[in-house]
Amino acid sequence: MHRIRRLASQEGYTLLECILQVMIFALFAQLFLLFFYWKGPIERQYTEHSATAWEMFAADFQAELTHLHSFEVYHNGEGVRFRTDRGLIAIEQRNHVIRKSIDGLGHVPFLTHVSSAQFSLQHPTLVVNVTMQDGTRKERNFTIGDYSQ
Predict the structure, then answer these.
(1) Could you tell me the end-to-end alpha-carbon distance of the chain, in angstroms, rounded to an integer?
(2) What residue intervals traverse the membrane (predicted)?
C-alpha cells in the first residue's frame, strides 16, 4: 500500500503534457480566427443584398416603362398603371411587397421587405420613394416612355 502511494506522488505535470496542450490551444485559436475571417465577407454579402435587390427592381421597373400607350399614378401615389402592348400593367405596394400585375392577373413581386412606397409623376420622369423595413430610404427617378397624355 505504501508503494502505490509513493508512485502516485511522483506523477506530475510534465513538459510533454504542456506542449500537447499548447498545440491543441494553437489549433483552436486558428480555427477561431478562420471563423471570423470567413464571417466578414458573409456579413457584407447580406448587407449588400438589399442594395442588389433595389438595383434589380430599378432595372426591371425601367424596362417596363418603355413603349407606353397610357400612364397614370393612382391612389394618391400608392401605385401606377400603364397600358402597353401586353395589356394594363399595375405596379403597387401590397403588404411588404411592391408587385406587378397584368390585366389584374398574377402578382409578380418586384421588391420585397418594403415598409412604404410613394410614386409621383414629374413629367417626363416618375419619382419613386421607398422606405425599407430596416428603415433605409431609397429614391430613384425613372424615365417614362412616350405616351399620349
Answers:
(1) 108
(2) 12-38
